[in-house]
Amino acid sequence: MAKPLPTPVRNHLTGLRLLLLFTVLCGLLYPLAITGISQVAFSRQANGSLVKDGSGKTVGSSLIGQNFTVVSKDGKTVSPDPKLFQSRPSAAGADGYDPTASAGSNKGTNDPDLATTYTQLKAAIAKFNGVSQSKVPADAVTKSGSGLDPDISPQYAAIQVNRVAEARSLTDGQVRTLVQKYTKDRTLGFLGEPRVDVLQLNIALTELG
Question: How far apart are the first and last CA of the chain?
Fold first, then answer.
C-alpha cells in the first residue's frame, strides 16, 4: 500500500487544484460567457457605442467627444473648423479627448491662471462665432471632469448657428432645425440638463452639404 502523502503536501495539492479550477471558471469561462451575452444583447454598447456616417465609415463614439478641426494648406496650422459645431474644451491628453488620459484641468478657484485662461478662451470663442462675450455659456470655456464629454449645451450650440450657416451657405433656420433634431432632453425627464449631440449634428451637416 502506498504511503499517504504528508498533510502539508496534500493541502498544497488541494490548493493547486482549486486554483486551476477557479482560474478556468473565473478567468476564462465567465469572461467568455459575459462577452457572448453582451455581444448578443448589447452589441453596440459592448463595441464602444461607435458612430458611423452615411457611408458606413466609423467617425467616433457617442460616449467620447472629439475636436472638429481643419488643417491649413501648408499643413502647419490646426484650427477649429468653421463649418462644424465645436465641442467644449477638453484637458484629456495633449490635444484633448484622449480616452487613455481622461482628466479635467484640475484648476481651482485659487489658481491665479484660471481667470486669465477663461477670459482669453471666452474672447476667442466670441470672436470665432461673431457674438458678444456675454453670450458665451459656461460649457464653452470650462472643461468637464472627465475631459471626454461628447455633448454641449443648447446655449453653446445656439451661438454657433450663424457661423456654421454662413460657412455652409445655409439659412439659420436650416441649421437650427438640425440642432433641435439632435438636442436630447434630460435623462428620464429630470436627470442632468438638455444637451446637443455634436457628433451626430456634424454628421448631418456634412451629409446636407
Answer: 88
